[in-house]
TrEMBL record:
A zinc finger (C3H1-type) spans 225-256, 364-386, 496-519, 613-639. Keywords: Metal-binding, Zinc, Zinc-finger. One of its GO terms (molecular function) is miRNA binding. InterPro entries: TPR-like_helical_dom_sf, TPR_rpt, ZC3H7A/B, Znf_C2H2_jaz, Znf_C2H2_sf, Znf_CCCH, Znf_CCCH_sf. GO terms for biological process: miRNA processing. The keyword Aminoacyl-tRNA synthetase does not apply. This is C3H1-type domain-containing protein. Residues 225-256, 364-386, 496-519, 613-639 form the C3H1-type domain. The keyword Nucleotide-binding does not apply. It comes from the Eukaryota.
Length: 680
């Protein structure tokens, strides 16, 4: 017998011994609790005997509990109705198991006197009456029970069995028309006048037996680095198709959504272009939208320099506009210019947009996405997502590369005042303050020269030693605004940190991605919606709020300097001003890791097994469970060995492409964990 049950039987013995004596209870107010606990223990003990199929001993315990209840009633102590109901119904179940059906019916009637709508008592009474041959009375009990609980499966089965025995006709129940809460439920309104955007994407499989059209929701905006999976809430609900998050759920509702979202994340599918017709597309607006979505700009570069190995970035020479700015080779710029898309973040990335011809296919080149296309400019498939999108706009509108570059310049070459005008939509006052003074609980503004703070300590006022403060009109308190948390896909909205709400202090050791104030939440939402990923984008506007006297502009010699020309690493997005700096860069460990990385290509999602070991063979100790586990240098299954071979071939092609582009030193043969690529 388990210890819990032993303790319960001991408590029952003590309580029965006490109430059978004439002793006074030490606490008169607690006497009711003693009797109630005793009855509960007797009920639990009877249930334990019932589960052990000891029906007689179960009846004895239930009867003892009822006797204590009668005794309590004589002492003017009322037992809970639910407790009395359980004692009667459970004793009736024990009588039913013993074959004493008359006693079971009597206990069910007693339970119904305590609780008229006792579903358990009605069901147990129906079972006993059925065994006594009183089918009509049993069916009446099931009818009353179904009126209380229409969805009870056991009662429904018993009612149907009794109806068949009585020869009654089984009819269909009337079901009231209701709108389901499932994800695929809808209400058809035939006379509705439609005035929608018509931007619902429907998909189906193109197989031998095509599936039905299924709606595919827009891809979630939250940062999801792994593969998409189906919603667990949806799987648990079965055919009901229920999810408490509805349209805000960031998990897929079906396999079609997983497939479409994966293609959208790779850039192979742009659903916005599916809903646009050529007549609706305005060329300039299409380019502007392209710039806003991809956060970059179009410009012309010298193609001869761009295609050289290693790559050289050179623009049009300012002193002599007919040639490029490369001092070592003055190419004819107009004859060799190419359109390129530039994205400037913490590094600079260039993507060439080749001229669109009638032979071009509006699809991505798989070789270019994985490890570089060998055909290069002679390939008719797009070599980047931005090239594919630009081709689609050109095919739909007929816009020329020159107009594309001019449209891009009109957007990105705005004066600084435009940033300040856009910032006025914020209902916050902003300013920069000294970070060191802010940590000490003081607010110190910069001096007129913006070199030191105005405190007595005269701290150096630089970008690294200043904080952005904001103050709302509702509160007269300055609060710090941290940089916008980096994310591949920004969330729909930001929440306040729960620790700030509960403790007014965040103890997270890392960079908390939740806002620490309402002002910070508002600022982050503004920065997200206006593509201001860094506080640097707001620096000019924030400094304008501080009373700095106007000074005469000073013309520096660098204002008229040539655009930067130098070697450019397409993997890291870094410029090198000379050969020595270039060699240092391509010899760095960080650059070598980027040679083999699949960042931005979603190729990392393909691999299911461990990183390859040194030996491409099946482990000999596998039959007796390898003691090395995941650190073993041998493959642990034929499938893992096959993937290792495919992964080695893939990385070797990336290495060969990097050597061809002169992104690796010719005498470099040390690649750390990737040295297995050099083995035969």
């Amino acid at each position: 017998m388990d210890p819990v049950r032993q303790k319960r039987r001991k408590d029952i013995g003590k309580a029965l011994a006490f109430i059978q004596s004439s002793l006074a209870y030490p606490e008169p107010e607690g006497y009711q609790d003693l009797l109630t606990q005793l009855v509960c223990n007797l009920l639990d003990e009877g249930n334990a005997f019932f589960r052990d199929r000891e029906w007689g001993r179960a009846v004895k315990e239930f009867s003892e509990g009822l006797n204590v209840s009668y005794y309590a009633e004589g002492e003017e102590i009322q037992m809970p109705e639910a407790l009395l109901e359980s004692l009667y119904v459970n004793r009736a179940a024990a009588y039913h198991s013993m074959g004493e059906y008359d006693q079971g019916v009597q206990d069910c009637d007693s339970a119904l006197e305590v609780c008229k709508k006792s579903r358990r008592a009605l069901y147990r009474k129906a079972l006993c009456l059925k065994e006594l041959g009183q089918y009509k009375e049993a069916y009446n009990c099931t009818t009353k029970c179904l009126l209380i609980a229409p969805q009870d499966k056991q009662v429904n089965e018993l009612a149907q069995e009794l109806a068949v025995h009585l020869g009654l006709k089984i009819r269909k129940p009337y079901v009231k028309a209701t709108v389901s809460q499932g994800i695929y439920s809808y209400v058809h309104k035939p006379d509705l006048v439609h005035n929608c955007k018509g931007d619902i994407l429907l998909c189906r499989l193109k197989a031998a037996y095509p599936s039905e059209w299924t709606r595919v929701r827009p891809i979630p905006r939250t940062s999801i680095s792994g593969p998409f999976v189906i919603c667990r809430e949806l799987l648990k609900s079965g055919d009901l198709g229920l999810c408490k998050y509805g349209e805000n759920c960031t998990f897929a509702y079906n396999q079609l959504e997983i497939d479409v979202w994966t293609e959208e994340r790779k850039g192979k599918l742009d659903r916005d272009l599916l809903f646009e017709t050529p007549s609706k597309l305005d060329p300039v607006n299409a380019i502007i939208r392209l710039l806003q979505e991809n956060k970059g700009m179009f410009m012309f570069l010298c193609q001869e320099c761009y295609d050289s190995k290693p790559r050289i970035i050179s623009e049009r020479c300012r002193d002599k506009p007919t040639v490029c700015s490369n001092l070592n080779a003055r190419h004819n710029f107009d004859a060799n210019k190419c359109l390129a898309f530039v994205v400037r973040t913490h590094n600079v990335n260039y993507s060439k947009v080749r001229p669109l011809s009638v032979l071009c296919h509006l699809d991505l080149c798989r070789q270019s996405i994985r490890y570089g296309c060998q055909r290069e400019d002679s390939c008719y498939y797009a070599h980047s997502v931005i090239e594919l999108k630009t081709w689609r706009v050109q095919r739909a509108t007929g816009i020329s590369p020159g107009v594309i570059q001019l449209s891009s310049g009109g957007i990105w070459n705005k004066p600084r005042g435009a940033a300040g005008a856009a910032r006025k939509s914020l209902s916050l006052k902003m300013k920069f303050a000294c970070a060191q003074c802010w940590r000490d609980g003081q607010i110190s503004d910069p001096d007129k020269a913006l070199k030191y703070c105005t405190a007595k300590a005269r701290h150096v006022f630089t970008k690294e030693r200043r904080v952005l403060l904001a103050r709302s009109s509702e509160r007269s308190k300055w609060v710090q605004i941290r940089p916008l948390p980096h994310a591949k896909n920004f969330p729909v909205y930001y929440d306040i940190c729960t620790q700030i709400l509960e403790k007014r202090k965040c103890t997270y050791t890392g960079n908390c991605t939740f806002a620490h104030s309402e002002e910070e939440k508002e600022m982050w939402m503004y920065m997200k919606n206006n593509d201001c990923e860094l506080l640097k984008s707001l620096s000019d506007g924030a400094m304008l709020t501080q009373p700095i006297p106007e000074e005469k502009p000073i013309v520096m010699p660098t204002d008229y300097a040539e655009p930067m020309t130098g070697l450019h690493c397409r993997l890291c997005g870094k410029h090198s001003n000379g050969e020595r700096q270039w060699q240092q860069h391509i010899s760095s460990e960080k650059h070598k890791d980027r040679v083999f990385s699949c960042e931005g290509e979603d190729e990392a999602l393909m691999w299911s097994y461990r990183f390859p070991g040194r030996h491409f063979e099946i482990c000999s100790k596998l039959g007796g469970s390898c003691p090395d586990g995941v650190s073993c240098d041998y493959a642990h299954s034929p499938e893992e060995l096959q993937e290792w071979t495919e992964r080695r071939d893939f990385l070797r092609q990336k290495l060969a492409k990097a050597r061809e582009d002169m992104l690796i030193m010719p005498d470099e043969f040390d690649f750390g964990k990737y040295n297995f690529l050099l083995q035969d």
